[in-house]
Amino acid sequence: MNLALAPETLARWQFGITTVYHFLFVPLTISLAAITAGLQTAWVRTGKEKYFHATKFWGKLFLINIAMGVVTGLVQEFQFGMNWSAYSRFVGDVFGAPLAMEALLAFFFESTFIGLWIFGWDRLPKKIHCACIWIVAVGTVLSSYFILAANSWMQHPVGYTVDKATGKARLTDIWAVLTQNTTLVVVFHTLTAAFLTGAAFIVGISSLHLWRARRKQLKGEELGEKQRKQIPAMVASLRVGLVVAVIAGLGTAISGDSLGKVMFEQQPMKMAAAEALWDTQAPAPFSVFAVGDVSQGHNSVEIEVPGLLSFLAHSNFTDSVPGINDIAAQEAGRYGGKAEDYIPSIFMTFWGFRLMIGFGMTSFAAGLVGLWTTRRKLWLAPEHRPAEGTIPRLMLTRTRELSPSLTAWSWRVGILTMGFPLIANSFGWIFTEMGRQPWAVYGLMRTDSAVSPGVSQGEVLTSLVVFTLLYAVLAVVEVRLLTKYAKAGPDTDEKPPAKDPKLRLPSARDGGGGGSSSAEAAEDADKPLTFAY
Amino acid sequence: MHLHDFWFLLIAVLWTGYFFLEGFDFGIGVLTKTLAKDRTERRVLINTIGPVWDANEVWMITAAGATFAAFPDWYAAFFSGFYLPLLAVLVCLILRGVAFEYRHKRSGERWQSNWEHVIFWCSLLSAFLWGTIFAAMVRGVPIGADGDFTGGPADLVSPYALLGGLGMLVLFTFHGAVFAALKTDGDIRHRARVHAGRLGLAAVVVAGAFLGWTQAQSGNGRSLAALVVALLALAGALVLNRAGREGWAFTLSGVAVAALSATLFLALFPDVMPSSSDPAWSLTVSGAASSPYTLKITTWVAAVMTPVVIGYQAWTYWVFRKRIGTRHIPAGH
Known about the structure:
The complex is a heterodimer.
Chain A: H1 7-46, H2 49-83, H3 85-119, H4 126-155, E1 160-162, E2 169-171, H5 174-179, H6 181-218, H7 225-266, H8 268-275, E3 286-293, E4 298-305, H9 308-314, H10 324-335, H11 346-373, H12 404-416, H13 420-435, E5 439-441, E6 445-446, H14 457-488, H15 518-526
Antiparallel strand pairs in A: 1-2, 3-4, 5-6
Helix pairs in contact in A: 1-2, 1-4, 1-6, 1-13, 1-14, 2-3, 2-7, 2-14, 3-4, 4-6, 6-7, 6-11, 6-12, 6-13, 7-8, 7-11, 8-11, 8-13, 11-13
Chain B: H1 3-34, H2 39-49, H3 53-70, H4 72-81, H5 83-102, H6 109-139, H7 159-183, H8 187-218, H9 221-242, H10 246-268, E1 271-273, E2 283-284, H11 292-319
Antiparallel strand pairs in B: 1-2
Helix pairs in contact in B: 1-2, 1-3, 1-6, 1-7, 1-10, 3-4, 3-11, 5-6, 6-7, 6-10, 7-8, 7-10, 8-9, 8-10, 9-10
């Protein structure tokens, strides 16, 4: 059989495409849920309209996004069984438990309370309504925790034995699975990256609106009434986005460093591949750029920072870091077969690792610069402090504004940065998963023995084509819808509910008592819904 | 009772909950073309399930996740065996979910009518496909000695399986019509009741035939009892619907759906997937189950969380208990 069309290859392509696609929506969902919840809380507590408009605006974009996250998540749950039945049978005893917990603890939370939130604006008391979006946010975090615990077990299996009679993995310690350091660090890294993603999204779209308005002002044109009214909500959003980007960016860097150290211990091959470090070295250099010759097992071109890799792995500049050739020989000795069978795609891991860090940290840096230049008080001459709700000028020092061309470029970078974490996340997962190859479960089950034996090439090919086409069409639909709503900006004509809704509907039988007259009740019963599908 | 028997019961309950809840969702989806006269009425129907359809679907996701955890062999053989039908289900559920969320987000005529077609066809097909899949599973599919599916797509199709698909489709549509009568107001409410009357008769015939065939082919004493409950509930729902007791009619149409689901699971037990190649190779409750340790942990989680989930989901239905009529639909989209 043609190897390029072997069921294993097709199933891997399908997993890669559907998972990377799904993970475009996941981090945005996690972070936008929490940030929208924060904005709504600000509105409930202060009553300021700008927070109401910001909540509604980001909430709308959040909903367009979560719809895709939910439906593409269905595929994830089905395809373990569909394409990877041998894997499912082998790991089900261990892997299934966190998945079932995810469904029971997280999915029900998310799906039930998102419905309440969408339709509840005029049905639920303000505070309860606000609590609903918080519960959704908690649901998204719980969900990522459980699925990452399951993934971490594939990266570093713990708390199990392999049953001698059946040859299957058997869970012996659920706490080990739920609390091993791989899980905890990965959860920390993924969540901070998710918040960086949402923050960059908010910074990007707020910058788009503010820069559009600012350019008009610079040209001496009058802003339209709608545009003027949108500015306070967009300024508030920009600040929130920048603060979250900086905190989350810092968290991503710290957790990424910890995760790297854990991986140097648990999967040295993945980290050696990430650095294209062919031979064990002490001290080991960090590779900035390399062109490898995989067949010969060395790099033909390389630019390096001496000792830095030792520092990343062991926190000192001298210790030895094992290289690809040595680890491969070791694994071949331990598990049988040829050494080169144990080497993942060096090209993908090396560049995936660099693109992840590069794009992620660019957004972090953009956040830092943005937070500094748009500051409101700190180290700023009083006459340069922006008035409440006006577009901030980008201030470099106490009295100096960025030059007009630098200002223009800064706003443009702010807009562009919204896509960077999405690229970083995708390459991060591609690196993590491809760097584990040839293993599906590290050290226990190889990917080529994980596929469904009973599924034909034609079937896998069909589903690969169907999902790819369907996802492509949906991507066009989704992006166009997002663009439409993002460009329109907050609907400033929308007014917050005049009175706080009560849980009990006023019924016609209530008569005069309790403040609700029957006339009011009748009117209420006929009132159109404020929101309907 | 062994833990694995308890888990078989729990998974049956999850699927039953799914059929009960998303059954009327699917029915509503089908009715958007057969009951609603215009876009406003279509929106009335869609909005009766708007806040709840997503959580209803999670019952299925949980059923699948619980199967993975409690019966890995069942999960592996089921999902790889029913490959193409499940692919079709996935496509339908993806498109249908997006359709609910995106239809109202643009005002263009083509945009809206396209998504409305999606809602109708994907609801109809999902109901039909689940029916065929479950019927084929009860009937038995080729499974080898090592527990793997050994057949091809043709082994999943049979007159019995197709009747199963039709039976679930008609029953769910009836269930949906009764739900529509309970949740709407005005003209559409009365037409929903008339519609339900006709659909109920069709359900008695088609779902009745499917149940009878199931009993004759794979039945036992317990499944017979469930079958009788299903038929009695169906008849009761018809009578109460005619009498205008909408709440009770809905309760009984729900009981009918649940009893149909129970009949299938009782006909399966103690197998989870009978093998048509050799009965000795059938996957059984005890053979396909996870280790006692895993079952014990998941039992704790399920025992604590299931009542909580049912509690807050029920609360959602209470919050959105108001009937919806055409006058409640805001203008515009």
